[in-house]
Design goal:
By secondary structure, this protein is an alpha/beta fold. The chain contains nine helices and ten strands. A six-stranded mixed beta sheet has the order 6-7-8-3-9-10, sandwiched between helices. Strands 2-1-4-5 form a four-stranded antiparallel beta sheet, covered by helices on one side.
């Protein structure tokens, strides 16, 4: 696993977000968002379309720079884009983007090798061995020399997860992991996410609107709202669905018949 910053304490939050505001030019998407994520937690960011879920994720992982507030990993501020601290923190988390975001001109082994080439001094033989191991961990052993176009959508998601796990990160972010997948494949991906958390103690942050995943694997959620431009609910999803007095929360979480499933 990538070494954690020395400021990290065993019981300290892995992620601390305080008064975060996100915007595209003059259009404010989120304002004054505050929450924490604990070590080993499967934490979901939920809400309807256009509420800012993916925008929040992009600001958390450094693809966009927030217009206000702060993000800390292991107690260390996720600083300016050119800072040494920021580069060190980048090695402690992985990201699975929608669709897997694999390079189509590279084999699966070559895709998984990319972060190892960027952030380590390992030999080519060592990198290839680790890439094969990561693919095997997600059930893709034997597919090392396949190209993304030669495998199914669900397999591409798993290959993307293998790449996100290449540096043995302490945190993995998922952006709508079930998008475009059938229910059976989606459930298998949820099981794989739980396996990663249980086996490696990885902290998981998932952006999703899929109720099946939310109720089956989320320890805790925050719900964003497009009009409010921030968090309108936080807690365990089943408790929020049953106890919230906010109609926006109950309407979102009571869709379908999933509450009848234990």
């Amino acid at each position: 696993m990538a070494p954690l910053p020395s400021a990290a304490a065993p019981d300290a939050p892995v992620i601390e977000v305080e008064n975060l505001s996100c915007a595209y030019e003059s259009s404010v998407v989120l304002k004054d968002v505050t929450f924490q994520v604990s070590r080993g937690e499967i934490f979901f960011v939920i809400g309807g379309s256009g509420c800012g879920k993916s925008t929040l994720l992009r600001n958390l992982v450094g693809l966009h720079h927030p217009v206000g507030g702060s993000v800390k990993f292991f107690g260390v501020p996720f600083g300016a884009p050119d800072s040494a601290a920021r580069r060190a923190l980048l090695q402690t988390f992985g990201v699975l983007f929608q669709g897997g975001a694999l390079w189509t001109s590279l084999t699966l082994r070559q895709n998984i090798a990319l972060p190892l080439e960027e952030f380590t001094a390992l030999s080519r033989r060592e990198i290839n061995e680790i890439a094969g191991l990561k693919l095997a961990q997600v059930g893709l052993g034997g597919f090392e020399d396949y190209f993304p176009s030669e495998i199914s959508g669900g397999m591409r998601k798993r290959a993307g997860l293998a790449r996100a796990l290449a540096l043995d990160p302490a945190v993995v972010f998922f952006d709508e992991p079930s998008a475009g997948l059938d229910p059976v494949t989606s459930r298998k991906l949820d099981e794989l996410i739980m396996q990663v958390r249980d086996t490696f103690g990885t902290t998981i942050v998932v952006v999703s609107h899929e109720l099946a995943s939310i109720f089956s694997i989320a320890d805790r959620v925050i719900m964003l709202d497009r009009v409010h431009k921030g968090i309108i609910a936080e807690g365990r999803p089943r408790e929020l669905a049953l106890q919230s007095r906010d109609s926006r929360v109950t309407e979102f979480l009571r869709r379908g018949d999933l509450l009848t499933t234990p």
